[in-house]
Design a protein that fits this description.
With about 475 residues, the chain is of the alpha+beta class. It is about 40% helix and about 20% strand. Strands 1, 2, 3, 4, 5, 6 and 7 form a seven-stranded antiparallel sheet that branches. It has a six-stranded antiparallel sheet with strand order 8-9-12-13-10-11, covered by helices on one side. Helix 5 runs parallel beside helix 7, helix 7 packs antiparallel against helix 8 and helix 9 packs antiparallel against helix 10.
Length: about 475
């Protein structure tokens, strides 16, 4: 109670709350390693790391990344048996994949970027009983002075995130901007079939427009994630390269995985809509729409779709436009929505067809193309009544519309086939139900017959007990009296 009374009042005097009962234990910050400190990497002391030079605090390589190191390997007597520094070339390996001795995989993983450490590695984490003749004998404990220069981590840059396009940054780029559709890129690259050393194609200061299929899709997708002056190694699976066919002209076999050493030297992005005047927006949108129409006519649907969407992006935001310009923007939006819906009909992406037709009909409620494409989408999702309504709406406006007639005929055939399937299904069901009813009737008849027989037996027994038994008893009594 005394403790409670002590804290009933409230005040701002810090001395009032300085008692030990209110203080929280202080958590000590982790001690920063100092040059000369030793760390036991494994519990058994098989790998010991001694800090020679500090690295960049907290920056350690992730598992399975590609690390680059310099090293000097010595026996305990000081004999140097290997040195990357003597060769004048750093050594690169994939961390944690067993490409080097276990002592390196585990020891380097504990190092920071720029750190130099002395790794003392016992034989069970090095070359064991076999050694590595002639320089390393059996059961030899080794010492490596290792400098962790850096590492590159492969990132999955595919849309599917299935590892089909992996990017390993070699040199970081400048700034924060990256190319997108329509961007003019200047690149240098060498392209290899994975596992080969001779490039099948090399380009220097090559200019390409993103989205124009001037390079394989895997390269375009990787470029979308790169900055100016960035260098990267891109590994591309067949699905984003030359697929099952390969490319005879470039001597690329079927199902080949490709590797590109790619540098994005520079790029020039087109103006964004907010950087344009309203007339420029309208002109650019119309240009992209017409380019989309040309590609659609060539059956290049994916590229056409990009053009339509880009055109739409430049006129959807019309708050800076005059009333007259807004009317023009609206007249541009309508064909864009309709054309996007047409592309999505071909790929049977019905929800997107419905969405774009809805937007088109909000602009023009009786638009024949929007009704026709929405009807196709409803037919594709088996909303047959809605599909029939849209096709009939088209025919009300245009009685001779051949496409609407064709779609309505197809819809009626689809409905007829379903009705036939239902009839067959239900006919079989009714037949089964009929058999079950007949079996139930037979069972009930048999049950009634058994019940009637049981009843008859009971009646006979009752008759015996009520009539015959007394008569027999009387007869027996009379016989006894005569004997007397």
């Amino acid at each position: 109670m005394a403790t409670e009374a002590k804290h009933e009042h409230c005040c701002d005097d810090p001395a009032c709350h300085s008692g030990e009962e209110d203080s929280e234990p202080e958590v000590e910050a982790p001690k920063e390693p100092q040059v000369g400190d030793e760390e036991q990497i494994t519990p058994d002391g098989g790998i010991v790391k001694k800090l020679v030079k500090k690295g960049e605090r907290w920056r350690k390589p992730p598992t399975k990344c590609e690390v680059t190191v310099h090293y000097v390997g010595k026996l305990l007597d000081g004999t140097v048996f290997d040195s990357s520094r003597d060769r004048g070339q750093p050594f690169t390996f994939n961390l944690g994949k067993g490409e080097v001795i276990k002592g390196w995989d585990e020891g380097v993983a504990k190092m920071e970027k720029g750190e130099i450490a002395l790794l003392t590695i016992k034989p069970e984490y090095a070359y064991g009983e076999r050694g590595s003749p002639p320089k390393i004998g059996a059961n030899a404990t080794l010492q490596f002075e290792v400098e962790l220069i850096g590492w590159t981590e492969a990132k999955d840059v595919s849309s599917e995130k299935d590892g089909s396009i992996m990017k390993k940054t070699i040199t970081e780029g400048d700034g924060y901007e990256m190319p997108d559709d329509e961007t003019l890129c200047t690149v240098t690259y060498k392209a290899f079939v994975k596992g080969t050393e001779t490039p099948f194609e090399s380009k220097e200061n090559f200019q390409l427009h993103m989205g124009e299929e001037e390079v394989i899709s895997g390269v375009e997708k990787a470029l979308e994630t790169m900055k100016k002056k960035e260098k990267a190694e891109i590994t591309i699976m067949p699905v984003h390269a030359y697929g099952k066919e390969g490319c005879k002209e470039k001597n690329i076999p079927a199902d080949a995985t490709l590797v590109y050493d790619l540098e994005l030297i520079d790029f020039d992005k087109p103006k964004s809509s907010y950087q344009m005047t309203a007339p420029e927006q309208l002109e650019y949108a119309e240009k992209k729409r017409l380019e989309g129409n040309q590609l659609y006519g060539q059956k290049k649907i994916a590229r056409a779709l990009k053009k339509y969407k880009r055109a739409l992006n430049y006129v959807e935001s019309d708050y800076r436009m005059s009333e007259e310009e807004k009317k023009k923007a609206k007249s541009l939006k309508l064909p864009c929505y309709l054309n996007i819906a047409a592309c999505k009909v071909l790929t049977k992406e019905w929800p997107e067809v419905l969405e774009n037709c809805k937007k088109a009909l909000e602009i023009e409620s009786t638009n024949v193309k929007a009704l026709l494409r929405r009807g196709k989408a409803y037919s594709g999702t088996d909303d047959w009544e809605l599909a029939e309504r849209d096709f009939n709406s088209v025919l009300t406006q245009q009685p001779d519309n051949a496409e609407a007639k064709k779609e309505l005929a197809l819809l009626n055939k689809k409905i007829a086939r379903q009705n036939a399937r239902d009839k067959k299904t239900f006919a079989g069901l009714f037949q089964k139900l009929g058999k079950l009813e007949q079996e139930e009737e037979r069972r009930l008849a048999e049950q009634k017959k058994q019940e009637d027989e049981e009843k008859a037996k009971k009646e006979v027994c009752s008759l015996c007990c009520c009539v015959l038994l007394p008569s027999l008893l009387t007869l027996s009594y009379r016989k006894k009296r005569r004997r007397r």
